[in-house]
């Protein structure tokens, strides 16, 4: 027999991530990082506009209400929600917490994260609206 | 229930084919028959040229892993009746080179596995006359789940990272590294970490989570990898912050 490699080497198809819902959600979660980076940039621009005074703030608001930006931010927010939900649901696998010799159930770890998110959200809301 | 079910089996005969194709066989549909029973029926009664691997028929040896209906499964534990009325697609495990029909080349895995030293490493061996290394039930529980791995490689077939970056050491190897790290009798953590802290080690994983979903033994390799990432990150911080004398 010749030394030629007769094995068949399968290639991963370009659209491999459309084959299963779980692969699709995974790729969307990876993609969400771009939108999260955008939201951070948007927040920084917002803070800068506030710091520069009334005129800059009014300009920012006018820019922020342009339809394409509203659509972009709505999409970015949807990705942010996806990222948060999937990330929270993955954490019990990474974190093994023992309390009193018993492993803390995954639902408690996930629940604690949502509770922390709610507390921080209420705090931010209070800071902004007071 | 109909009396037979159609198997669509991937065929690749390296002497004839340049790429795999499909061949269909009708096999009896019996409630207690697994996909492996169907394949054995084909091999014994219909087409002796069909090639596939199997051994124990009881979900322990890990050699009969194939893609059934597009999912990596142990064919000895997958029942034909679950796919009725059919057809059932049976293909070799993804992400591995195909040697022939349903047989894949597992050399890559066999080379990667010993790199994580999946055996007990002792700083000092205890003399035999001192008896066994004793372990409490709690110490056993710490690693028991990860010790259930049967090296069936379904997790590698489900992992798109391994498919795209074959250098990635992979889910089962990391789960087995974790199994020995968590063993109270073992002192080899440092040696395994040196291997797994590299880019092709734990950091190759981007947490798809499919490895855990397809594992027939509920080993949860995804958890092992994330726990290892935490360990590797702590080690990196320690290396950066602590003076040499204080490092482990």
UniProtKB/TrEMBL annotation, chain A:
Gene3D superfamilies: Fumarate reductase/succinate dehydrogenase, transmembrane subunit (1.20.1300.10). The keyword Membrane applies. InterPro entries: Fumarate_red_C (IPR003510), SQR/QFR_C/D (IPR034804). The chain crosses the membrane at residues 23-47, 68-88, 108-128. Pfam families: Fumarate_red_C (PF02300). The keyword Translocase does not apply. Keywords: Cell membrane, Membrane, Transmembrane, Transmembrane helix. One of its GO terms (cellular component) is membrane. This is Fumarate reductase subunit C. It comes from Nocardioides eburneiflavus.
Automatic annotation (TrEMBL), chain B:
GO terms for biological process: respiratory electron transport chain; tricarboxylic acid cycle. It catalyses: a menaquinone + succinate = a menaquinol + fumarate. Pathway: Carbohydrate metabolism; tricarboxylic acid cycle. InterPro entries: 2Fe-2S_ferredoxin-like_sf, 2Fe-2S_ferredoxin-type, 2Fe2S_fd_BS, 4Fe4S_Fe-S-bd, 4Fe4S_Fe_S_CS, Beta-grasp_dom_sf, Helical_ferredxn, SDH/FRD_Iron-Sulfur. It holds the Pfam family Fer4_8. The keyword Iron applies. GO terms for molecular function: 2 iron, 2 sulfur cluster binding; 3 iron, 4 sulfur cluster binding; 4 iron, 4 sulfur cluster binding; electron transfer activity; metal ion binding; succinate dehydrogenase (quinone) activity. Its EC number is 1.3.5.1. It comes from the Bacteria. Residues 140-169 form the 4Fe-4S ferredoxin-type domain. Its cofactor is [4Fe-4S] cluster; [3Fe-4S] cluster; [2Fe-2S] cluster. Belongs to the succinate dehydrogenase/fumarate reductase iron-sulfur protein family. This is Fumarate reductase iron-sulfur subunit. It comes from Nocardioides eburneiflavus. The lineage of its organism: Bacteria, Bacillati, Actinomycetota, Actinomycetes, Propionibacteriales.
């Amino acid at each position: 027999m010749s030394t030629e490699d007769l094995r068949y080497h399968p290639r991963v198809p370009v659209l491999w991530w459309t084959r299963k819902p779980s692969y699709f959600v995974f790729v969307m979660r990876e993609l969400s990082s771009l939108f999260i980076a955008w939201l951070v940039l948007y927040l920084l621009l917002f803070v800068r506009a506030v710091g520069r005074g009334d005129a800059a703030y009014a300009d920012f608001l006018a820019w922020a209400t342009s339809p394409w930006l509203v659509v972009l931010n709505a999409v970015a927010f949807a990705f942010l929600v996806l990222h948060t939900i999937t990330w929270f649901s993955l954490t019990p696998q990474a974190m093994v917490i023992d309390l009193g010799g018993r492993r803390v159930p995954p639902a408690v770890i996930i629940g604690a994260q949502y509770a922390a998110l709610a507390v921080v959200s209420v705090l931010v809301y209070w800071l902004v609206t007071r | 229930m109909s009396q037979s079910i159609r198997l669509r089996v991937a065929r690749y005969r390296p002497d004839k084919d340049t790429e795999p194709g499909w061949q269909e066989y009708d096999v009896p549909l019996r409630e207690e028959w697994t996909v492996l029973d169907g394949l054995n029926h084909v091999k014994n009664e219909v087409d002796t040229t069909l090639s596939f691997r199997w051994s124990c028929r009881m979900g322990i040896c890990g050699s009969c892993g194939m893609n059934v209906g597009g999912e990596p499964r142990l064919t000895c534990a997958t029942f034909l009746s679950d796919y009725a009325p059919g057809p059932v697609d049976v293909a070799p495990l993804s992400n591995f080179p195909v040697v022939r029909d349903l047989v894949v080349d597992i050399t890559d895995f066999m080379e990667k596995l010993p790199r994580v030293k999946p055996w007990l490493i002792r700083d000092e061996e205890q003399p035999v006359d001192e008896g066994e290394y004793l372990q409490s039930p709690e110490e056993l529980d710490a690693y028991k789940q990860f010790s259930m791995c049967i090296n069936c490689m379904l997790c590698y077939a489900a992992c798109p990272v391994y498919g795209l970056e074959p250098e990635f050491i992979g889910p089962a190897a990391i789960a087995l590294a974790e199994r020995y790290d968590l063993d109270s009798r073992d002192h080899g953590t440092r040696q395994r970490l040196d291997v797994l802290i590299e880019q092709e080690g734990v950091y190759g994983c981007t947490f798809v989570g499919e490895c855990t979903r397809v594992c027939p033994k509920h080993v949860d390799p995804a958890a092992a990898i994330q726990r290892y990432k935490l360990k590797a990150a702590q080690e990196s911080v320690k290396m950066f912050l602590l003076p040499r004398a204080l490092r482990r």
